[in-house]
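Why do we bother with holo predictions? Because pocket geometry can differ from the apo form. Keep that in mind while you read this record for protoporphyrin IX containing FE.
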Amino acid sequence: MKKNKNSDGKIDSLLVSKPVKTYSLLAKTFHWGFVIVFFYGIFKQVDELEQLADNSLLRLEMAFAVAFLLMLVARFIYMKKTQTSAIPTNTSNLQKSAAKIVHYGLYACLASIAVSGMSIGTLYWANIKSGFVIEFVISVHEFSFTVIYGLIAIHITAALYHRFLQDGVWNSMVPFWKEQTKLD
Ligand code: HEM
Ligand code: HEM
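The structure, written out:
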């Protein structure tokens, strides 16, 4: 490990960024691009079913949801095939499993939001504008948001916890407030 000896022979630790695993530029672009697209989706959300009577809004929502789902699938395949978590190998199995569950949960909720949104649009377009089926699909759409808000809160808390641990997980994905740690 990298150490410096100063004039009186004592070892000086260097303050440097930790040389640990980092995600590829494309992986980071997918991650942060998605954060922006997802929050844009929430910002421009449909508030009431009746709004879909506006045909151009219905088409725009459907196009957005299709593009969102395609990007999500592309991201998932790319991440699975080329990237691995930055969690240190000596982390407990319980913590590794918890991280996996939260990450897969985020993907599942994002997919569920897009698919249920597209189903709402399709049902509305097919003139099924009331009744059990469309109400059920809207409940799935809304429930997916309740779950994902919880998962995002856990995910950000865990990322901050790793930032505090200074184990390199934060630096692997986050381009700001970088860890500076003593190599000793
Ligand atoms: C300020 C907000 C956020 C921070 C600081 C953050 C931080 C991180 C960090 C440090 C990792 C790497 C974890 C590891 O290597 O095991 C990661 C991965 C991940 N993050 Fe976030 N994240 C944020 C927001 C989000 C949001 C809003 C989502 C989803 C809606 C999300 C979804 C994911 C997923 C699925 C992964 C696993 C890697 C992948 O497949 O892309 N993150 N995040
Ligand atoms: C990825 C794409 C989408 C995002 C991010 C999104 C976002 C949201 C959000 C944040 C809500 C509020 C949920 C809540 O109350 O907890 C919502 C509700 C809703 N969305 Fe989406 N949505 C998407 C796709 C769609 C699509 C494609 C349609 C239909 C064409 C649609 C139709 C609706 C309707 C009808 C509601 C509920 C209105 C009500 O409560 O009566 N959404 N959406």
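The chain has five helices and four strands.
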